[in-house]
Amino acid sequence: MVDLSRNSLRRVVVTGLGAVTPLGPDFTSSWDGLVAGRTGVGPLTKIDASLFPCRVAAEVQDFDAGRFLDGKEVRRHDPFTHYAVAAAHMARDDAALHRYTDPQRVGVIIGSGIGGLRTIDVQSRILHSQGPRRVSPFMIPALIADMASGVAAIGLGARGPNFAALTACSSGAHSIGEAYHFLRLGKADAIFAGGTEGSVNAFSIAGFCAMRAVSTAFNDDPARASRPFDADRDGFVVGEGACVLVLETLDHALARGARIYCEVTGYAASCDAHHVTAPVLGGEVLAQTIGDALRESALEPGDVDYVNAHGTSTPYNDLCESNAYKLAFGEEAYRIPISSVKGATGHMLGAAGAFEAAVCARTIVTGIIPPTLNYERPDPACDLNYVPNVAIRREVRVAVSDNLGFGGHNAALVFQKFSPP
Question: What pairs with residue 392 in β-bridges?
Fold first, then answer.
């Protein structure tokens, strides 16, 4: 039987960060761009933008999948898998985790909101124009959303827990949270956890445009299109990329002399049970989720030094989050710096929560809180401190990251400055 007493639970730490984002082909360049106030949002170039009401995107540029996969593998897999494999390998290198005492205790949990949409797009065109015999035999493995975890594990030699959390835009956060639970219970020693999305393609853009979920008001000024919490926000900007964190039990990390970024101390998940795409505007369920994560961490609202918001730049999401923070933190909500990185990265969908978790880890280490770009005209209904446009320096001992996903999914993660035992 598993001993579930509090004293038996393992401490879990973050020891590696890897990313591919619209801001850069690795985590360091992405972080540097983020704190410098640079944006990865620009004109939509990967498809014919003239066909769509939204003509802006946050595209991954200057990325070479051949650095991480051989030529055949590159051709067989979808971009969401390319990005995930790259992020996982970079996280491994950052953590210096190249040897495993027992590969069956090293896992990979990389979520995706959608999976291989580009593959679906390309192969469906082939099916209808050339017939079923011309469809690729690699189509199914390329499009299923668990393939990022599977292919990454092959390259990493990781034989432990392996699956993909699919909770739309909260997939990355849920993947990290589930990895934390595996480690906390002693069911693994290390897990590569995060999220990925290859979402800048015709299928994706067309679908989000049809939903009227994306920004169309800034086609002539793309850099200003993603504007979380701003009064003129009109929708999110589709982004893409991946981020993977190496999570380890503290004992495992200390035994190998690992560098530790921070500790994961809380995770909670819930569902609004309200609407397929719209959150509960009052924020009650998200607030409860944040509160549950803080309680698991044995923390009070006054202990929180920074919140990394989901902050999508949609009218409903940003209002819901603002209300949730007021409920979760009370008067402390007006003190706590809150920022959304999506003004710089766009919405990386299934990868968003993972990159935002990595940002929390780096913020704790550096004391730099990244800004919310394009916050120009305050919304009276969103009246908190959103760290407008310029990064600030402040000691951060406790950081909270929350994410929401279509289907009513909510996730909250708590990170703390590491204190040796």
Answer: 369
Q: Using one digit for the tens of pLDDT, what is the confidence trace for 176-226?
A: 999 999 999 999 999 999 999 999 999 899 999 999 999 999 999 999 999
Rounded to 10 deg, the angle between the 79-95 and 147-156 helix axes is 40
Gap between the Cα atoms of 347 and 324, Å rounded: 20
For the beta carbon of residue 4, count every other beta carbon within 10 angstroms. 9
Residue pLDDT, tens place only, 318-327: 999 999 999 9
Tell me the domain boundaries of the chain: 6-255, 263-416
Torsional sign, CA 174, 175, 176, 178: positive
CATH of 6-255, one of 3.30.70.1170, 3.40.640.10, 3.40.47.10, 3.40.440.10: 3.40.47.10
Strands (E), 37-153: 41-43, 56-58, 106-111
Q: From 3.30.1330.60, 3.40.190.10, 3.40.47.10, 3.40.50.11260, which CATH number describes the 263-416 domain?
A: 3.40.47.10
Q: Quick one: which of 254, 154, 148 has its CA closest to 193?
A: 148
Q: Which residues are catalytic?
A: 169, 310, 347
Pull the structure tokens for residue 110.
């990389």
- Transcribe 325-378 into DSSP letters: HHHHHGGGGGTS-EE-THHHH-B-GGGHHHHHHHHHHHHHHH-EEPPBTT--SB
Report yes or no: 191 and 107 within 8 Å, Cβ to Cβ. Answer: yes
